[in-house]
Write a structure and sequence with these properties.
Structural class: mainly alpha
Distance between the termini: 51 Å
Length: 419
């Protein structure tokens, strides 16, 4: 099916004009009114999610999702791409799907995606399904299982909506991934996220995997909102892709359930890491130029606007620092999305994401990159978990830091802050 057919299949002939227009604008890069920011974001998210969920809910994702592998692919089983695609998509989509049901056009769209997601989860762990995911024979499965389970933390209604057989199968697959020994990098957080998920649903959990991840991340904090990915600091966006969101959300689970846990004070740890993420968010916002561009730095730059996941998470949690007003953050993130998705080649003819940064640029792919990996970009849509009448979506758009700076307007100076 072509991209337009996918959109029509999910949204129907009497679809939401604003959203349909927003999705089209996503590929044209046209300007939109500040009042239409939510429609634009919803339309773009719809365009990204539609081909994946409409196919996987019918057990046809692996049949119809033609893989694109990086030119430097390291030879790992290519089937990991489907777990990457679905797991990463659901992690970013989950906050929006967890909103209460309503009869609005957007509410009906969420209902469609929720139904498709639940059926997709059934296929993902059914060994007889053509869309049974690659849970074994690849260490990469640990990585993307963490995004897969993170979606249930962000949208409990997804877990509650599953049948008992599917829940048992998911728990079995997640526990089975304990066989993977993560390297001393951000991978420690993938193991910890799975254990936090198991704890949250009342299953037996491994405190050692959580304890190790938390201790190492505290050791690797280098100051002023930045965390090293292991012993050595890397200047990339892994603080955004993995470290801050997973650390904060793992600590949220521990604070809420407060298990007996090696004298760790999860409430204190959560407060510290939230402040660190706020400081890092200030840096991210300043990276967005007046035109909506931002630095193409470090490995995995093809994850596109997933670089701004912490800002979306802070917005969704209503935890943006005073230095970052909601209208300013929303305007900056919308500008970045429009700039990245201005080129239609971000999507292939079937509507799936391609490898690239601001279009189809396959040579930017790393040795582990495939087009399934690209669905981590959904992490930049976390603020859609706020209802349409929330102040984040209704407050007037404001110029962001770089826009003010290069317009010779007054803007806040920046100083080192540590926690």
């Amino acid at each position: 099916m072509k991209r337009r057919e996918f959109m029509g299949a999910v949204m129907g002939a009497a679809t939401i004009p604003a959203m349909a227009g927003a999705a089209t604008a996503a590929t044209r890069g046209t300007a939109a009114n500040a009042a239409d920011d939510r429609a634009y974001m919803t339309g773009l998210m719809t365009q990204i999610a539609t081909p994946v969920l409409s196919n996987m809910s019918q057990g046809q994702l692996q049949k119809n999702f033609k893989l694109e592998l990086s030119p430097t692919w390291d030879g790992r089983p290519s089937g990991v791409a489907y777990l990457e695609c679905f797991g990463r998509l659901m992690s970013g989509l989950a906050p929006w799907l967890n909103l209460p049901e309503d009869a609005t056009p957007e509410g009906r769209l969420r209902k469609t995606f929720t139904d498709q997601a639940l059926q997709s989860y059934v296929h993902s762990v059914d060994p007889k399904s053509p869309d049974y995911l690659l849970w074994s024979n690849a260490g990469q499965a640990l990585v993307d299982s963490a995004y897969y389970t993170n979606a249930f933390l962000r949208a409990p209604k997804l877990w509650d909506g599953l049948d008992t057989t599917t829940k048992v199968r998911i728990v079995t697959e997640i526990k089975g991934l304990r066989r993977v020994s993560p390297p001393y990098t951000n991978w420690l957080l993938f193991a910890a996220m799975n254990e936090a998920f198991l704890l949250s649903i009342g299953e037996d959990w491994d405190p050692v995997r959580l304890d190790l991840a938390i201790k190492k991340m505290n050791e690797w904090y280098v100051g002023d909102g930045w965390v090293a990915d292991g012993v050595h600091f890397h200047y990339d966006y892994y603080n955004s892709y993995v470290i801050y969101p997973m650390m904060v959300e793992i600590l949220e689970v521990l604070e809420r359930l407060n298990p007996s846990f090696n004298n760790l004070k999860p409430a204190d740890q959560h407060a510290i890491w939230l402040k660190r993420m706020q400081r890092y968010g200030e840096h991210l916002e300043r990276m967005i130029s007046p035109e909506g561009t931002y630095p193409p730095i470090g490995r995995s730059m093809t994850y596109r606007t997933a670089a701004f996941q912490p800002l979306g998470l802070l917005a969704w949690r209503k935890a943006l620092p005073d230095s970052l007003p909601e209208g300013q953050v929303r305007a900056a993130l919308t500008a970045a999305q429009k700039r990245i998705f201005a080129n239609p080649s971000n999507f292939n003819d079937a509507g799936y994401l391609t490898i690239g940064f601001a279009g189809h640029q396959p040579t930017l792919g790393d040795w582990y990159s495939n087009n399934g990996s690209m669905y981590i970009v959904s992490e930049s849509f976390l603020a859609l978990g706020l209802p349409a009448n929330d102040s984040y979506w209704t407050t007037p758009a404001l110029p962001w830091t770089a826009k003010k700076a290069f317009a010779n307007e007054t803007f806040k100076k920046d100083y080192y802050v540590d926690y």
